[in-house]
Amino acid sequence: GGSEAAAAAAAGGGGNRVFFQSPRGGGSSREDAVPATAAVVQVQQQQRRQQQGKVTVKYDRKELRKRLVLEEWIVEQLGQLYGCEEEEMPDVEIDIDDLLDAANEEERALKLQETLVDCYKPTEEFIKELLSRIRGMRKLSPPQKKSI
């Protein structure tokens, strides 16, 4: 009937084509809803992929990769410093952009020491290594639109 065509048009909205096979015999309306739900999920997944694509265009891919590697290293180091897995770690947040905003190395080191104040293991090596790793990095703020 017309309800399948309407569901296909609604789910396919943005130029995507979605086809449904009508169930044989007079299927109940519940059976008709199952393929429609699957199609909507597919369309949402496509939209999500497109949004992810926009993010990587917005930022420099190399900077994103460097940031990801650094963040993984930080989590690993914090796990060793606190002697626990990531899930059990105390609420320690190291904001790389915040560190990059600091005026100089001393201010960055102070911010890190304050963040790690409750760590019972020595943190000097971690702080020194982290500061050397962020040297030359840029903040990951959205790029400014160029004025014409």
Q: Which CATH class of the domain at 61-135?
A: Mainly Alpha
| Total number of beta strands | 0
What is the first-to-last residue Cα distance?
Answer: 54 Å
Give the oligomeric state of the chains in this entry, treating copies of one chain as homo and distinct chains as hetero: single chain
- Output the helix-strand order: HHHHHH
Regions with little confidence, pLDDT below 50 for 5+ residues = 27-33
Percentage beta strand: under 5%
CATH topology of the domain at 61-135: DNA polymerase, domain 1
Task: Sum this structure up briefly.
The chain has a domain at 61-135: DNA polymerase, domain 1, CATH 1.10.150.
Please describe the topology of this protein:
Blueprint (H helix, E strand, L loop, with lengths): L1 H11 L16 H30 L2 H22 L13 H6 L3 H11 L8 H11 L14
Helix pairs in contact: 1-2, 5-6
Keywords: Acetylation, Phosphoprotein, Protein phosphatase inhibitor
InterPro entries: CPI-17, CPI-17_sf
GO cellular component, one term: cytoplasm
Walkthrough of the structure:
It is a single chain. The chain has 148 residues and is an all-alpha fold. It has a domain at 61-135: DNA polymerase, domain 1. The protein is built from 6 helices and no strands. It has helices at 2-12, 29-58, 61-82, 96-101, 105-115, 124-134. The chain starts with a helix and ends in a 14-residue tail after the last helix.
Descriptive terms for the model:
DNA polymerase, domain 1; 6 helices; mainly alpha; globular; 148 residues; acetylation; single chain; protein serine/threonine phosphatase inhibitor activity; CPI-17
